[in-house]
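Annotated sample (chain length 110).
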Amino acid sequence: MPVFKTLFLFLVTALAEIIGCYLPYLWLREGKSAWLLVPGALSLAAFAWLLSLHPTAAGRVYAAYGGVYIFVAILWLWAVDGIRPTVWDLVGSAVALAGMAIILFAPRGS
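Output written by the structure step:
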């Protein structure tokens, strides 16, 4: 799978997972409507489906996806929660993305 398509798919997958977890959080912790559980469940279903679109071994996809998830979660912290990431948040995200790149794009023998 081409690099940019893979990274885009990971980004969309991470957003689906974060939204699917954030909406129930709003209901449980912020007293918002229980109706948020419906789009939350749909978002988590989309998350599972999106992970299935990768042609490589599932374990490798999940491991590499974790790095992108960390990065997107830090962006979410800033964009949605209004909390500016610290230098350490950014360094940790960069390390996670480097790990993702190693796992996903390393040359493999046949």
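Annotation: Residues 20 and 45 are 8 Å apart (CA to CA).
Annotation: Residues 3-105 form one domain.
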